[in-house]
Amino acid sequence: QVQLVESGGGLVQPGGSLRLSCAASGRIDGIPALAWYRQAPGKERVMVASVTRGGQTVYMPSARGRFTISRDNTKNTVNLEMNDLKQEDTAVYYCNAPGSDYWGPWGQGTQVTVSS
To answer: Which residues pair with 39 in a beta bridge?
Structure first.
């Protein structure tokens, strides 16, 4: 099973940007879909964005136009570029592989805090 480790979170002011990275312990080119999720305090974990092996992407409505998900099959990473961050984007962000046998236990995630 491929292990996924998230990084890149931090504290940023509203309107700022962050780039999250999810590094896999093995090859990801065979994984049908990879996704970023987030869980805000007191809320359920939700999918933020997903990308298929063919490069098709889906975003949650509030992320559309601000976030960009990408996968690099040569570096075995899945990245989430986040721009124009808002306080409501504050959450712990996770990556996983939905809809396939590559789905694994949740990792530590990476904390994103948007605050002035």
So the answer is: 92
